[in-house]
Write a structure and sequence with these properties.
The chain has 254 residues and is α+β, with helices and mostly antiparallel strands. The chain has one domain: Deoxyribonuclease I, Chain A (4-Layer Sandwich), CATH 3.60.10. The protein contains 7 helices and 14 strands. Helix 4 packs parallel to helix 6.
């Protein structure tokens, strides 16, 4: 089984590029998207014809054209549930969970702390509540959480750690502590577990030719329940797939 996660930075925008060709190339069983920037109906309308072999599910923000997540699956899930059940966090369509026979797949678009770090306190609360939500799911069966976590966990995960530490959203100690809480409470950052020393990024600023120069950040993750760790045979970051300021990340399971 192959699962792909991709922050598409607008499903309607990327659909006009090579998105559908890339999806066919990747040939994933489950595709998790973040930042769809579309309503549930708009997501379905955009992909229905090209991705007719997938069951299509989406979540939307209250604010139009903002945030949003989606799951496309070749196998029909047992159930699909949107949001965490916490009103404060459930206004932006950031969480969508699909239950399958052996595990849950959760796609997440974690809030950005903003350039001036004005949302950092909220972000800390989000991280704690999202971890508690995943642990609650895990009581029933193992969890695969994937998406844009908006944090570079270690210095190896961004091109310029010293310049950004405690100055830039995504590399403050509070955000790093948030990711530590996931990895210290039964969730494995599977790419880093399998590639401890590999420098690879999943997001690049649109400014200053950052992608061409590979001045990037690894902020897109698969966090899997420890009980699934040995079942993940491969973990990838698909740097050659364009169309967004992020690239897809993926796992293959036996």
């Amino acid at each position: 089984m192959k699962i792909i996660s991709f922050n598409v930075n607008g499903i309607r925008a990327i659909a006009k590029k090579n998105f559908f060709e890339d999806v066919k190339l990747m040939n994933a069983d489950i595709i998790c998207l973040q930042e769809t920037k579309a309503s549930i109906e708009q997501v379905k309308e955009t992909v229905a014809e090209e991705l007719s072999d997938y069951f299509i599910y989406a979540n939307q923000a209250v604010k139009k054209g903002y945030s949003g997540t989606a799951i496309f699956s070749k196998t029909e899930p047992i159930s699909v549930v949107a949001d965490m059940g916490i009103e404060e966090h459930d206004q932006e369509g950031r969480v969508l969970a699909a239950e399958f026979e052996d595990f849950y797949v959760v796609t997440v678009y974690v809030p950005n702390s903003k350039n001036d770090l004005s949302r950092l306190d909220y972000r800390q609360k989000w991280d704690a509540d999202f971890l508690a939500y995943l642990k609650e799911l895990e009581k029933k069966k193992p969890v695969i959480a994937c998406g844009d976590f908006n944090v570079a966990h270690k210095e190896i995960d961004l091109a310029r750690p010293k310049a950004n530490y405690n100055k830039s959203a995504g590399f403050t100690q509070k955000e790093i502590d948030g990711m530590d809480n996931f990895t210290q409470n039964g969730f494995v950052d599977i790419f880093r577990s399998q590639h401890p020393d590999e420098v690879k990024y999943s997001w690049w600023s649109y400014r200053g030719g950052a992608r061409e120069r590979n001045v990037g950040w690894r902020i897109d993750y698969f966090l899997v329940s420890e009980s699934l760790q040995d079942k993940v045979k491969k973990s990838t970051i698909e740097n050659d797939i364009l169309g967004s300021d992020h690239c897809p990340v993926g796992i293959e399971m036996s």
